[in-house]
Fold these 2 entries.
Entry 1:
Amino acid sequence: MDLSVGTPVDPTPELIQAALRAAANAPGYPTVAGRDDLRAACSGWLARSLDVHVEPSAVLPGIGSKELIASIPRMLGLDPGSRVVIPRIAYPTYAVGALLAGCEPIATDEPESVDDATLVWLNSPGNPTGSVLPVQRMAEIVAWARANDVLVISDECYIELGWDLEPVSILHPSVCGDRHDGVLAVHSLSKRSNLAGYRFGFVAGDQQVVGDLLAVRKHAGMMVPTPVQFAAIAALGDDEHVAEQRERYRGRREILRTALTDAGMRIDDSAAGLYLWATRSEPCWDTVAWFADRGIVVTVALTATDAQVAEVAARLSAA
Ligand SMILES: Cc1ncc(COP(=O)(O)O)c(C=O)c1O
């Protein structure tokens, strides 16, 4: 029972597959900026789902948010040795992207404590803790960053998967006012639309920074394949499949949360996203070994089928 990797296991919705198939004849190069209707779809989804208002020209698509995260420090031409702040407990790609650009990753949840920071990554809802940054805290970080000429980029790939809390985008007016200067958000369709195999993500926010990224990418590439652009337009235009997928994860989360707490574990954070951040109040490798003895590989991700989740719960209950 593999709960160790957050990879979607449910089918890509049929309307998205159909859009991909219908666009299979694609002899020409796609543009780096993406189709106008794709950028409009991203902008429309941000407005409809997150109450975030950006012009389509302040959106830039890419082949997956992992690739965007890994490449942004280099694409922005950050000076080697620059300090890139990443969350204390974080998805590894923030550090890898910084290192690839010759920068120094600094892991802390207090970016204000870092002298000479150039870029700050936030991740809310977070992987792997499922923590959600309060609006007030994000607003403080943005205000500090603007005052110190630091770019803040928030990875929001789990933003539609809020359980106990409603996550808010860094681009929302309650966080950054009615301007997006110095602020970007990274989004992904991988989890909300079961589209991880297609590779699609986008950045949106500060028009100037988006323009800088576009200018470099015109020659560095990472263009989104045309059929995937059409699939993304279909995915961004439909809310129903997202609601259905949310309910699947909500059910799995409930079963796993109950099974873990019944087995004596404490769950911290985990208010949103695809992970349960659980502890048996012992060194974590001991806990991982305890799970392994029962044939369960962790971290505790919700991305397993209903049958596997039920089996995990049964094994934990037998323990
Ligand atoms: C926090 C976080 N950001 C980004 C990604 C990458 O997603 P993708 O490249 O599929 O858009 C993941 C994948 O698990 C993730 O957990």
Entry 2:
Amino acid sequence: MKNEVRKCICSNVTFEEMKAIAEHNNVASIEELCSFVNVASNCKLCTPYILKMLETGKTRFETDNGFN
Ligand code: FES
């Protein structure tokens, strides 16, 4: 089954929102982004997606849950 990853679940901030903050503040790294918004500060499962968002501008990521 395919799922879509769209946000940091722990902080309930979407990649779309993070992208807007990153663009508005000329953010180039995840460390810099974290100084503007509290994301990737708990379980950090969102970290690779945030890195990909900063790199490509994508804000939705398809993933497979491995149960089929
Ligand atoms: S999903 Fe982002 S810190 Fe847990």
